[in-house]
């Protein structure tokens, strides 16, 4: 009995395979869809596996130590050497480091490189510093120290998000195609259900069909996906590392996608009574004589009849519009995300930070040392910028504010208060708005150079603040949103003296509430300042920046402007040798100053390892896949839909409609579909593009999730044009092609109303 059952199962499988091969052209949409899905999975998992391998290889080959002391003096070197020597002296099971090697630099300083031991480098480093640490010198950490926690989580996070996105997209694609397939073959499935087929049996039969098709596309998809991945890494000069685990993940997620995609459409179908599915599902029973029925209402044929038919099919058209709008929007989003990522990677970031110890309290000495050290480091080959720290003093710490004219407060209602106190000025009626949503920053030549490097849309002369004490440089945005409008030559009033009585600002955190308390309880004197330059770039700062010279900064804040930190930037085309040479030069320069420490931010190494993965290239591959899916869904869907409408057209022809009028109805349907798709796609693309820009330029930096980088919004002309053209083509072409096909078929046959042909 069991052998007979097994024989029947094998026979059923051979029958299924033979049926698929005989009807392979009818499954072309599924073959293309499965090939796209498997190609995406191949690129995704092979690139992720290679990123893990490449990151581990790059870190371990570039560093053989986790902890370092750089710029040690002779006494510090002797102290460390006497305690540790070059080999661990304690028992192997208790020692937390393997080896220590020393290096004497040309400037007379010493470097020590410590290779830690143990399962937890953090614990080993903490123990080492507790036992042998130099109290007056901060240690440095190489990428090898914590690369598993610093680099690998980013790869796994991107892999998880990308896998979820591709899986959801694959489900959407296959479910759309399978829903259309069930709608086309409803009669056949109704027969199966009438003969006793249950949901479980129909589900597994459908899964076996798709799995058999996926086996046909697996090898071409693997070859294509591997070729794309090889090309992506070849653009970075890296050879691809193949992974068996990645291949197994491609097979696993293909299986999961097929099993999940069939479930919902088949479940919905199985819930319907077979009798309802056996009914003819065409529009021929709605068709009467087009001229006779429409002429009564003064309507025309075929325009009005086709518009009425489209209204009857509105549920289908709404479902069609989901794909017609979603896929172009996702395409533009992926392209914008790739562009944002590329710009963030190319944005300047400090590779080293040089900081003077706060034990040096003489402000003039600190400023002089900082300026001298900056000039010395700038002379090093490979250094592009050496910028001083940005001195900021929030005005709320001073109990002050500024008065503005009404035309300056462009959409700034949330951070301004109406000022109704009388001023002893002839133009007192102009100063109607007050705000404390700003910070003072001290500007000198170095700070002005920093602003010019950081921002691109600057109006006016930044150097004017150095020539005139009553001139300021001001920004216009708060948290990446433009709220104010300034121009060079504008005037502002800054409260410089205050007599405040009865103010209860304890516990207040809202700046607007604090300002209202000040205005209600205080009496202020004001100084007039002229706007010398305006920074129009949208910034992620949570307040405006008001830049003044050192003298005015001290007068306004009552504290001296002290710079004790420098940021060192490498040139964009710097390589590993340049990076190491500049690092040695920075440490050597800092060695000549009292209590001067250098921090390696590892920006170059981080960006180098990230650039090897060519993430922007992978995002563009994903964007292209969206473009391929759109015509696949829309052409297949409308092909099935208009094939079912041919009986309706036969009825119309039998009632007197000509082939030209039928074709005209298809032209009308195509125009309506194309215009509807375009009308919905353009605003959705623009809204999503703007939201994505705000997410990376405002919300994520404000929440501390990513570093702040000033990004200028650029209208997505190319992406929008491609999406718009594709929407028009995919909306207009399928109905027209269906009409031309029907017109060609009608040349070889006649339609009889009595014969029903």
Word description of this protein:
The chain is an alpha+beta fold. Helices cover 57% and strands 14% of the residues. It is built from 24 helices and 20 strands. Strands 7, 8, 9, 10, 11, 12, 13, 16, 17 and 18 form a 10-stranded mixed sheet that branches. The chain has a 4-stranded antiparallel sheet with strand order 2-3-1-4. A 4-stranded antiparallel sheet has the order 6-19-5-20. Strand 2 and strand 3 form a beta hairpin. Helix 12 (303-312) crosses helix 23. The two termini are 50 Å apart.
Layout of secondary structure:
Blueprint lengths: L1 H21 L5 H35 L4 E6 L1 H11 L12 E8 L5 E7 L4 H12 L7 E2 L1 H8 L1 H33 L1 H9 L4 H36 L9 H27 L3 H5 L11 H6 L7 H10 L1 H33 L5 E5 L6 H16 L4 E6 L3 E3 L7 E4 L11 E2 L12 E5 L2 E6 L1 H10 L3 E3 L3 H4 L3 E5 L1 E2 L2 E2 L8 E10 L10 H11 E14 L8 E6 H8 L7 E6 L5 H16 L4 E5 L2 H10 L2 H30 L1 H9 L4 H44 L14 H30 L11
